[in-house]
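Researcher: Batch entry, complex prediction.
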Amino acid sequence: MIFRKKVKADSDKPSLWERYLTKEIGIEFKACLYFYALLFFYCIYRICTGNTVADILHMAEMIFLAYIIGYVQVYLLWNFDEADTIGRKEVLGISICTAIYTGVSYWLKWFDRNLYVTIGFAGYIVFLFVCVYLVYKCRRRIDDKIMNSNLELFKTRNKWDE
Amino acid sequence: MKFRVQQISQGEDELILRYRQMNSEVKEILTFMERRERKLAGKIDGETVFFLPEEILYIEKVDEKTFAYTTEQVIQMDVSLSMAELMLDDIRFFRCSKSMILNVNRVERLKSLPSNRIDATLQNGEHIMISRTYASEFRKLLRGE
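Model: Structure tokens for the complex:
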């Protein structure tokens, strides 16, 4: 018999606070990622219109919105960008978030209420969600390989006595 | 090798093995006893059965009853899930949820799921979900940490 190194105590399991913190860090990460992407599109637009200065108020609005959408994604929309496959729920999630981003960008004049740019921005957001979904999927695939290789090593280390 | 069987009316059942030198015959008996010692008891349709821990795929608590699942049988154990965990006290058995203990050596394949959960496919094709709460500890176990 291979005995456990230690008796598992309840303290080994993450507490409610730790689980909440993990979720919160996830949202923080999402907010940073999407804000960076929004800012990129915004900067390209500004450069294309001959303006090399970014409005700090717009940037604040973007990061604030990215946070709110992050919460909506995680708590209300099944964390769709980390889903295993894209189904109806995920399409609905992408549509709702894209509509919010686009609507707010139009309302707060990020792109001077230019309809063509706003439509382009909506397409960019959809593309962004699909890219993030693919990145997470790719990461999980790599994780699968590592885990299964570790599993085989574990089995070899801990074979049953014949 | 000579052997003697004696019935007693009091005291515990006991087997004493006396030998001059360790040989294959003695080793065989010792191995048999060690394996027998490790056996767990349970019931199938009211009949008591004995089984080895390595035969278990997973142990599950359903309606306050504990069941051990092997590839062919579902055995009701007389002990609670926590007690079964203590009895096994083996690194190969992992508490993968509040109501389940998984035999890691019987896992065929692992799949990483969203929200840091893990799907474990057992040798009989069954899928067991390892929740986020237990997943990080499971990963550590696999890495030998």
